[in-house]
Design a protein that fits this description.
Length: about 750
């Protein structure tokens, strides 16, 4: 959680307008004139609101904030009062924690809790410019353990019905600590010794967050008489110099040198290379150095035999590994002294200047004392560098990553677009990088990852090697992607720029798998591979070539449909079973054509002659739709059909009629007549008989026997006629042998 506020104690000096910070005098008999101010100041951008409450009685549950002091810090805390200036507006309650009993009737006293309630009628708003300050009366520190450091804590009420915190962060810490030094007010001599604290080195430190800075503190006796020292390592009477650096976890606090972690990492006395304390420091012979303690303090006490700080004598203390990323400004190094014979305890201040700049050889260094360019900015890893801001928008440089993943960046540190422009055209930038990652060229409102906006008939994106130009284009007819020069357009993946997978030639041919297509679309694969394909993830339509030829169909186990004119129902279907349907996609036969009644189905035409099937209410038909004969053939006999149906309805077998009628006249006295029909092609039947006889004698009978019979290569008609001397005639029918099976027997 973010830090919401800081608090400190302000101690007014007697007979002076000066105050000491985070110090309390040891005083076993404090009067109402012994006061201590508690100041709470929100951090930059944070507002603290104390709500008005109906219950005006302060308690451990009804309060706005609580101050906690360690045991043996305050003298008679239950007698503490609020200054009269707070009458009616504030309430104060003291509770002292009771810990493990020391006897049957006594308890060891623990922490001291001061509960403070705001009683105003309206909410109280506390801002960085208007901090909250309350003055306590009758405040003194317990003398039992002598001069010493301690800690105090301020905790806001946990419920927002009492206190709210608002600012740029979502959550804030409602508890803060402050150190408090308990010191002697007077030791019976002059109020202050003639001491000065200053830096014999430069007091400048780079506040880039990563540079280790080196300082040399000088504590000097500027008086005309020596200052007497009491050697030792502890106790109220031992002379001591305590060094304390101001710290804060909020890097915007100008008064702080660094964070508590940065301060506790300082080396005193430190080596100039920042690798640790310096064992060769000359002061080791005269001074003990202890620290840092939990308050981030170092204490110097004189060793045995070191009893005088002569006039003009100085203690030079090297301080190394001073690192800070806090805001530019002055930070106080507090040098507290105590146990100096004849003098009150007090403090001196040496100011440390935090700033980002150093000048060297007409060059400016930010974050570095050794600039190599006109302006050199050096930061820690993964940190911002140069920034331009109007208070809301921040334009920054940034180095990102560690030693293995270095990168450099330039952009907005705040949630604002990044604009690129020339010729002072900031109102109409040439390129815009949006906060959502989209890039617009010619537009400030891109709707895609990269959007280029031009006028109509203008090229947009372009890539060239000086000869070949790849470009995009928007015109009246639509959008285009291609080459501006007379070169083929290649498409590729996986870095295969020299082996394109698709090529559009300047002639308009498209090649997939080939850079030299011979047709408007040519797909080249290896033998036994699929080529063109269309799929919805389940059904796949594809082409295929192998040693047996070219194929077109479904790669998945689905029917193949053919359609035209955007029909939603297929006009031709090839089933996975091998059946083909025309007009139906559920054919029951190898080829099934489905039409309405009175419609033609299968058809073959050369533009003049048309062969067709037809169905109607009267049944199924097969024949010529044009005025041409219908022929039937086998064994590719396309010039001499086996069967012909003439347009006049006649039926021909091998070009001739399959049936013939003929009358055979036999001369008088002959027993047979030749029909002329070949025995191999015809079979002859007797259809009728005629006899021209003039013998009508009553006692003479006429008998005959007439039959066909093969004689030689033709059919003959034989007639056995008794006592007839006239000629006779026979009617015969000849039928093509192709239509007859069997033979006569005699």
């Amino acid at each position: 959680m973010a830090q919401a506020f800081a608090f400190q104690f302000n101690l007014p000096l007697p007979d002076s307008s000066d105050t000491l910070t985070n110090v309390l005098f040891i005083n076993e008999s404090p009067a109402e004139s012994d006061t201590l101010e508690v100041e709470s100041k929100p951090h930059s951008g944070v507002t603290m609101m104390l709500k008005n409450v109906s219950d005006k009685v302060v308690s451990s549950s009804n309060h706005h904030f609580k101050l906690t002091f360690r045991p043996d810090t305050l003298v008679r805390p239950e007698e503490l009062l609020l200054d009269a200036s707070h009458d009616g507006q504030w309430g104060l309650l003291c509770e002292v924690e009771k810990r493990v009993p020391t006897s049957a009737d006594e308890y060891a006293l623990g922490d001291v809790y001061l509960y403070v309630l705001y009683k105003g009628a309206a909410p109280l708003e506390v801002k960085p410019s208007t901090p909250l300050a309350l003055t306590l009366k009758k405040v003194g520190a317990v003398a039992g353990k002598g001069t010493r450091p301690t800690l105090a804590q301020l905790t806001l009420h946990r419920y927002e019905t009492y206190v709210t915190l608002s600012g740029p962060d979502d959550e804030y810490n409602r508890t803060e600590n402050s150190d408090l030094g308990l010191i002697n007010m007077s030791m019976g001599g002059a109020s202050a010794p003639s001491l000065e604290a200053e830096f014999s080195s430069s007091n400048l430190v780079l506040n880039d967050g990563h540079t280790d800075n080196h300082l040399v503190l000088r504590i000097v006796n500027t008086g005309l008489v020596p200052i007497l020292l009491t050697p030792g390592t502890g106790g109220e009477s031992v002379s001591r110099f305590t060094l304390r650096f101001e710290s804060s976890e909020d890097t915007s606090d100008l008064w702080a040198l660094g964070t508590s972690s940065q301060v506790s990492s300082i080396f005193i006395p430190g080596k100039s290379d920042h690798t640790g304390t310096d064992p060769d420091w000359p002061g080791h012979a005269l001074w003990n150095v202890e620290g840092p303690n939990q308050l981030g303090e170092w204490t110097l006490t004189p060793k045995s035999g070191n009893t005088t700080l002569d006039k003009g004598m100085a203690i030079e203390v090297p301080i190394s590994k001073v690192k800070t990323g806090h805001a530019t400004g002055r930070s106080a190094l507090l040098v507290r002294y105590g146990g100096l014979t004849g003098y009150s305890d007090g403090e001196r201040v040496a100011f440390i200047q935090k700033q980002p700049l150093k000048f060297a050889d007409q060059k400016v260094g930010i974050g570095t004392g050794s600039p190599t360019e006109k302006l050199t900015v050096e930061t820690a890893e993964d940190a911002y560098g140069i920034t331009h801001s109007d208070g809301t928008v921040k334009l920054s440089t940034r180095l990102r990553g560690t030693s293995s993943t270095r990168a450099a960046g330039f952009g907005t540190q705040t949630n604002h677009d990044l604009l690129f422009y020339t010729n002072d055209s900031v109102s109409s930038p040439a390129m815009t990088l949006k906060t959502n990652g989209r890039v617009g060229i010619g537009t400030e409102a891109p709707t895609f990852r990269l959007q280029v906006k031009t006028g109509t008939g203008v090229h947009g994106l372009s890539h060239t090697d000086g000869t070949r130009i790849f470009t995009t284009y928007v015109g009246e007819k639509g959008v285009s992607l291609g080459t501006l020069t007379n070169h083929n357009l290649h498409l590729f993946t996986t870095g295969r720029g020299d082996s394109p997978q698709l090529t559009l030639t300047t002639g308009g041919n498209v090649g997939i798998g080939t850079e030299a297509p011979d047709f408007p679309l040519q797909v080249k694969t290896g033998t036994g591979e699929h080529g063109l394909s269309h799929t919805d993830g389940t059904r796949t339509l594809t082409t295929y070539v192998n040693d047996n030829g070219g194929w077109f169909g479904t790669k998945s186990n689905h029917d193949l449909h053919f359609f035209a004119n955007n029909k939603t129902q297929p006009q031709l279907t090839l089933k996975t079973s091998g059946n083909v349907g025309i007009g139906t996609y559920t054919p029951d036969h190898p080829l099934q054509v489905k039409t309405g009644a009175g419609a033609h189905g299968l058809s073959h035409t050369d533009g003049t002659r048309t062969l067709s099937t037809y169905v109607s209410d009267k049944g199924g038909w097969f024949g010529t739709k044009s005025n041409h004969d219908l022929h039937f053939f086998t064994s590719n006999h396309t010039t001499t059909p086996e069967l012909t149906l003439k347009t006049d309805g006649r039926l021909l077998l091998k070009g001739e009629a399959p049936f013939q009628c003929k009358t055979i006249t036999v001369d008088r006295g002959s027993a047979s007549g030749n029909t002329g029909f070949s025995k191999d092609e015809w079979v002859v039947f007797v259809a009728g008989f005629y006899l021209n006889a003039d013998d009508d004698s009553a006692d003479k009978d006429i008998s005959f026997n007439c039959y066909p019979k093969v004689s030689g290569t033709t059919w003959h008609i034989f007639a056995d006629v008794e006592r007839v001397g006239d000629d006779w005639r026979v009617h015969v029918i000849a039928i093509r042998r192709a239509l007859i099976t069997g033979n006569y027997s005699y």
